[in-house]
Design a protein that fits this description.
Layout (H helix, E strand, L loop, with lengths): L1 H11 L1 H4 L4 H21 L12 H23 L5 H9 L5 H25 L2 H4 L14 H22 L11 H20 L5 H11 L7 H21 L13
Helix pairs in contact: 3-4, 3-6, 3-10, 4-9, 5-6, 5-8, 5-11, 6-10, 8-9, 8-11, 10-11
Subunit structure: Homotetramer.
Organism: Bombus impatiens (Bumblebee)
Pfam families: MIP (PF00230)
């Protein structure tokens, strides 16, 4: 009974979110998502019709942005900067329920602020071309979009769990680079299909600022579905058993 109660307390995480230092984690998640959306979406803007951004350009901007943020914010909040990441870690037992909810709210606020500031920083003509909003590719239907987003986010969460698992010594120190490269390769594959969101907050920000909601639900359902499956799979099958402590998305 005592062990079950302790497990429930850990899952809910009330004690964790009541600590004063938790506010710093929330600020880190807000700031991290703000910078990711601002910088990443800036790379998606078409300035001239004959010189649109390339897939490689966009992929490396998002990948390197996350890798850079992970070095700074990883020790503070874990640098989730993505509601799908927080949900996947909740499923695998590495993030409490209340922490997940608080993180997602802050991530969404940061993403909206990032898109809003980006709109203020660029000319109106450029902002009218999309602000880096994610959209389905030509002839791509909604189900295809959901599955592509689920697959690339599934890959991301598997890598995150693997490189931040304290029971593994072979990946120590590689987490930011490995995660950044995973985002890069996923973008190279998925940008033409869905815009490669992998991050519901990243899609929410431009959608809110531009007022374009049509396919936004795809960029919530797909990534969260893939993340939750990856979290469950890693917990049940892939997690190493050589130490007693639980894995954590902290670098």
């Amino acid at each position: 009974m005592g062990k079950g109660w302790k497990g429930m307390k850990d899952f809910v995480g009330l004690e964790e979110v009541m600590k004063f230092e938790f506010l710093l984690k929330l600020f880190a998640e807000t700031l991290g998502t703000f910078l990711l959306v601002l910088i990443g979406c800036a790379s998606c803007i078409t300035w001239t019709a004959d010189n649109p951004p390339t897939v490689v350009h966009i992929a490396f901007t998002f990948g390197l942005a996350v890798a850079s943020l992970a070095h700074v914010l990883g020790p503070i909040s874990g640098c989730h900067v993505n509601p799908a990441v927080s949900m996947g870690l909740l499923v695998s037992g590495n993030c409490s329920f209340l922490k997940t909810i608080c993180y997602i709210v802050c991530q969404c606020c940061g993403a909206i602020a990032g898109s809003g500031i980006l709109k203020l920083l660029i000319p109106v003509e450029a902002a009218d071309k999309g602000l880096g909003a994610t959209n389905l590719g030509l002839l791509v239907n909604q189900m295809q979009g959901i599955f592509m987003e689920a697959i690339v986010t599934f890959l991301l969460l598997l890598v995150i769990h693997a490189v931040t698992d304290p029971k593994r010594t072979d990946t120590k120190g590689w987490a930011p680079l490995a995660i950044g490269l995973t985002i890069t390769v996923a973008h190279m594959a998925a940008v033409p299909v869905t815009g490669s969101s992998m991050n519901p907050a990243r899609s929410l920000g431009p959608a809110i600022v531009l007022g374009e909601w049509d396919d936004l639900w795809i960029y919530w359902v797909g990534p969260i579905l893939g993340a939750c499956i990856a979290g469950a799979l890693y917990k049940l099958a892939f997690r190493h058993k050589t130490m007693d402590d639980e894995a954590s998305y902290d670098f």
